[in-house]
Amino acid sequence: MNRQLSKIGFILLLLCGAAQLQAQVTIDIGLDSTTLLIGDQLGVSVNLVVLAGSEVENINYGNWAEAGNVELLDIGELNTVSEGPPTLLHQRLLLTTFDSGYHYFPPLEVVFTQNGVRDTARSGDLAMTVATIPVPQEATIRDNKDIIEEKINWLDLLPFAVGAILVVMLILFLWRLSGIVPERKKTPPPPPKPAHIIALEQLDNLEKEAIWQKGEIKAFQSELTHILRAYLEGRFSMQALEATTAEIRQSMAKFKLDEDGLIHSVLSTADMVKFAKAEPATDVHPAALQTVREFVIATRKPEPAPEEAGEEKDAEE
Q: How far apart are CA 10 and CA 27, in angstroms?
């Protein structure tokens, strides 16, 4: 408040004595304070009184700031307070310094023109004192404090875990892409059952069911001859499933099978039941089943001797 009153009083004095002034531009500089703590900021007011016919071109703060060892933080706009005549101009500065001691400011130079003639006006001297922070004499230098260690948080390790997982996935992808992955050994399928084993198992099941005793004679004879035909195909590679009884008899003759004609009799009886609806005696059916069983056992493929089986196994490995 006191600074504003002094500013207004200065301006009134300039207005009253402007006619007697010989200079065309008058400069007044006011510091907000003549003492400053090192590193603090200080405001400066620059007031100009410009008589009629004069025009301000430039205010040179460069030499002024350099001589005073200060740093100008902000230079405000040059505002017109009154258009007069005379014209009153005002500008605010903000400065700081990090040099302690007594600071002297030389006159501030203002370049102006009067009726086309350039001239320079100068302010009065300016000074201020910059103080440092006082340090007590009994103060001692303290040791550095220990570093405060922060507790490990699992969230801090999350980026590293994600990065490790991505690296492992990339390595596995490149490994598979390169074709280095060893192929898994395929387990060979178990060898198929011999034809006589399958036939004997089916004959045992058919005998347990004994469907001929339930009056299902045609179904029994059809199943019995199907087992026999499948055995002939699996054992001797005959086309027996789709062949007629006569064709099967011709094929069996090539292998010198059924020389007594028992199998042919079984097939013929089945044809009579299936196509002529014949009804043989009840004891014909289990007898036919036993005839087929004995034929399978008699013509089955002989199992290899233990020594031959070992040699075949070594050859496969």
A: 11
Structure tokens at 311: 């040699």
- Cα-Cα-Cα-Cα dihedral sign, residues 37, 41, 47, 53: positive
Could you give the C-alpha distances from 41 to 38, 73, 90, 300, in angstroms and in order?
9, 9, 20, 116
Between CA 270 and CA 287 the distance in angstroms is: 13
Q: How far, in Å, are 149, 158, 174, 195, 303 from residue 154 at the CA level?
A: 15, 6, 30, 67, 68
Q: In angstroms, how far apart are the furthest CA atoms of the chain?
A: 164
- Is cis: bond before 306, omega within 30 of 0? no
Q: Tens of pLDDT along 120-155? A: 888 887 788 888 877 666 656 777 777 877 777 777
Exposure string over 140-177, b if 16+ CB within 10 A, otherwise e = eeeeeeeeeeeeeeeeeeeeeeeeeeeeeeeeeeeeee
- What is the spatial distance between Cα 298 and Cα 302, in angstroms, rounded to a whole number? 10
Q: How many CB atoms lie within 10 A of CB 42?
A: 20
Q: Structure tokens of 205?
A: 């099941």
Architecture of domain 2-131: Sandwich (2.60)
| Rounded (5°) CA angle 119-123-127 | 150
Domain boundaries, the chain: 2-131, 195-299
**Residue pLDDT, tens place only, 290-300:** 999 999 998 88
Query: Is residue 226 pLDDT above 90, yes or no?
Result: yes
Closest CA to 33 of 107, 122, 130: 130
Q: How far apart (Å, rounded) are the C-alpha atoms in residues 294 and 260?
A: 13
The closest of 301, 296, 303 to 227, measured between CA atoms, is: 296
Q: Tell me, what's the pLDDT at 17?
A: 42
